[in-house]
Here is the input.
Amino acid sequence: MNVPLLDLHQQTAALRDDILRAVTEVVDSTTYILGPKVTQLDQDVAAYCGAGFGIGVSSGTDALLMTLMALEIGPGDRVLTTPYSFFATVGAILRVGALPVFADIEGETFNIDPGKMAELLAEDTKNGRTIKAIIPVHLFGQCADMGKIMALAQEYGIPVIEDAAQAIGSEYPMLAKDGSTVWRKAGAMGLVGCYSFFPSKNLGCLGDGGMVVTSDKAFADTLRCYRNHGAQPKYYHAKIGGNFRLDPIQAAVLSVKLPHLEQWHKQRQANSRVYQELFAQAGLTDNPVMLPKAVHAASPGATAHNHHIYNQFVIRIPNREALRTYLQQQGVGCEVYYPVCLHKQDCMKKYGTTELSLPIAEQLAQDSLALPIFPELRREQQEYVVSVIAEFYRS
Ligand SMILES: *Cc1c(COP(=O)(O)O)cnc(C)c1O
Here is the structure.
């Protein structure tokens, strides 16, 4: 049997007519830069995420880069972030001339550890406060521990830029002042949230696209200005922005897809439950296979919420490279997210971070493996994936 890591054929086929109609509207309108399709998507994504404003941009990477530019973070500044993410997170920091400060992650969620962040922020205070922003990443579709992160951000007066590229629609149980729980969506808790519409994300377009959301009206205006070379008004530049605009064709496609997003999350969550059941039946859970955990799901009523949207279903296993090869030989798509931590990348040598020891992130880089989890995945395919893994550990 062949089980691809991701198969976009079915999703695209189901929406093909609607997508082509929406694209045709853009073609016929002759509005090919910004315009009503982008404005509509900006509003719809902001509303979906519970943020005030959306600013559609050219990619998730540009969402991060443009936000750092708009905050005027640059040389001499540092940004506190995770060592375990896609490269774009740290790439954006370096491209504005700032330096990353890496806090190790939690082994269960793969997300930045607020305890480690607190230590680094305390140290930074002694050294003259150069940390000017925090970028937590909601990795694989589960929110970082935003209650603790926002408390630290408030204590130190530092803005939080959520890298929610993998987590649009994921929810976190934020504790309100009166002790009640308010479920907040990824990207709508910090000053800004950055999303990616790369085709492999839960909401993907037909190419590159992204969005920044914020509930700060003045900052939304600033971001919109940066999206278009910092022009305000046209041809007058008090700021230096860039061409960070989302194409209306991609916005039109995304408007067709957005109403289906909750259903796709539910299918991914159902697939995750099937894996939990199948791995348990095969006697593989905890040892040798560590399954992903939705850690903030403990609060009452949590099952009704998207605490995890499973952009990736990442297991931890010993002897990963051998299992990976075996799965590929048996026709099962899988991938390592990520084989090299950000602080260990070759391009980081000149910043001295390759010397750092961040043991939890480094361990995960050795033993994590993503399995197919896309919404249309069938039960027989999951049974096959688990049977191949069981076979591997039996032999
Ligand atoms: C995908 C991704 C990005 C970058 O998004 P693009 O749209 O591909 O530029 C940034 N951060 C994380 C965590 C991602 O997964």
The mean pLDDT is 96. Residues 59-61, 85-86, 88-89, 137, 163, 165-166, 196, 198, 208, 210 surround pyridoxal-5'-phosphate (CB under 6 Å). The chain has two domains: 9-260, 261-394. The first strand starts at residue 53 and ends at 57.
